[in-house]
Amino acid sequence: MVPVPRSSGRRLCLMLARESRSGGVHASGRQGCPTDTAKPVSRRPWSSPRRGNGRSAMGRHQRERRISQMKRLLLALLTAGTMIVSTAVQAQDHKTLGIVALLANDALNIAVIGGATDAAKAAGWDVKVTDTQASADQANAAMNSFAAQHVDAIFVLAFASSSIGSGLAAARDAHIPVGTWGGEIVPGIVATTSGRQVGDDSVKYLLEKAGDKANVLAMTFHPGKLCIDRGMAFDEGVK
Fold this sequence. Notes:
This protein has helices at 51-86, 107-122, 136-149, 165-173, 195-210, 225-237; strands at residues 13-14, 16-19, 25-28, 37-38, 96-101, 126-131, 153-157, 178-181, 189-192, 218-220. The chain is an alpha/beta fold. It has a five-stranded parallel beta sheet with strand order 6-5-7-8-9, sandwiched between helices. A three-stranded antiparallel beta sheet has the order 1-10-4. Strands 2-3 form a two-stranded antiparallel sheet. Helix 1 packs across helix 2 (107-122).
């Protein structure tokens, strides 16, 4: 697995496992954001016997944590949406969740969108998804569009809250609660997840499986909010 940078200014995105559509697990540099670069740097001699089992177990661990985290986040978001809608003079037969996706064709985004869709439909909600192709401008446009459509809640994937200001303003004006995957809590956002916590748990689990002797592979993506948070946890965890 790869780089263990010494510079505190470096931001690394942990290599996590992702589940293929056939059910198998393979390595990926993406966690809510695409891979930028990968630079192998040796920190410790590699102990090969542990590699396969550790990597597969790490994939299962990350997937289980994402599913659990997504259920808690969507429960909070849908509850907020239901409370707001229940105060309206005329209630709709079906409430709608608008999902603003970072990359709708990315494996991990697909997993998150799928989990959110399952949770919403289980609660009786309809779901609309907009693919922004990692563009903050398109994310703001999607949120404005959802606000104009009077959806009942908006779920934003992997954008920093500071980059979706106009979308949040439109949602606030329309009294629509917003939840984010990895964004910061700011006015208008009622629920979010912690990319830093995922990073802390990931590096701890990785080092427990790799032991004291290992080469570490990290997949870097400096602009990605989730990747930056996990990278900070990784930098500190491997010191």
